[in-house]
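cache lookup: miss for this entity combination. No prior model stored, computing from scratch. Input as submitted by user K.M.:
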Amino acid sequence: MSRLVVVSNRVQSLNQGPGGNQGGLAVALIAALRQRGGIWFGWSGETTPVFTGEIHREREGDTETAVVDLEPQDVDEYYNGFANRTLWPLFHNRVDLSEFERDFEGGYARVNRRFADTLAPLVEPDDLVWVHDYHLMPLGQELRQRGIANRIGFFLHIPWPPADLLLSLPHTRALIHALFAYDLVAFQTQAWLDNFLHFVTSQLDGEVGEGHRVTVGDRTICATVAPIGIETREFEAAAASDEARFARERMYMSATGRSLIVGVDRLDYSKGLPERFNGYERFLSRYPDMRGLVYMLQVAPPSREKVDTYQAIRAELDALSGRINGEYADIDWVPIRYVNKGYARARLAGIFRAARIGLVTPLRDGMNLVAKEYVAAQDPADPGVLILSRFA
Ligand code: ADQ
């Protein structure tokens, strides 16, 4: 089997262990790498005054991480800029929040070139290269320009927006055309693939052929649906661990006889958190006899704090939770427990298992792993209920 070379914006340390506080993407990628062996390449999360391309490596068995530091300007323009101020809102149908700046676009192109310059010498002829997410759409094209002829795949973790929204982005055709340097482009759902195919046929003169083949100019690629999952067995085991049991007992003891409703989301405007708080408030107001019988735990670790829309959503939720608690709380009951920190996976699994209701209500989401984790964590003999918005 050929070696796997995974590329994503950030790379998770391999030595964090199963108790580490990892997101779903990281867990899925580590599992794939452990199965096949290979390299995981990306940004270290650190900055350096001048980009050197020096690679920091860490090895565990057959698997290696290789990370580079970026310049502060790279982080501003590529990560906080084009990726999270331009593409993220646009791809989540929030064109109203999307910022279009030439510097962002320049920084995005520069970091993709830097990634390609640094990565190309590590790639061996048989390697299978797998690029992840909206931060790195042009990376395949940059690697081809450096003579990399390997099979290269691209996976998009977030939604693909309708063509008329995407067209509001300057130079969007060139950006999308760059995806045709890959051999395979994969999406979470059929809906995102359909949006992609519509863009390609209506804007790039593309043709859709048999067996997922799509042609633009002289390039034919495979475009398909390959939804991400979770490590279900591992998560089930985590939910039955001592750490999970301890977390569960803490929840029960702190709220005897009350039913827990849980939400766990990165603090992001795409997750529908103010709408969820408002919906819960309406529930308390319409069903007064339910007050005191339920409580909601919302775990929302802050995310992308340098971006002002994220500061705004945080301030909005602080105010909303304070107002709802102020209005409805009693001396022995608080309707919302609002927590802004991360938890180890086993503890999270215990909290999911203690909850009678899991609330997953994004306004737009590529997939949503929390929904799958909530289900996997349940006691099969006495499972809770998962409530999904239609957009999860
Ligand atoms: P996210 O937007 O981050 O992912 P999601 O799929 O819900 O959304 O994954 C979040 C992960 O972080 C889950 O594994 C969750 O358990 C974990 N997590 C969240 N809060 C946590 C906390 N307080 N402590 C510890 N862990 C926490 C993006 C896309 C999604 C897509 C995924 C994977 O936006 O649509 O499902 O990538 O492709």
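stored under new cache key. The chain has a mean pLDDT of 94.
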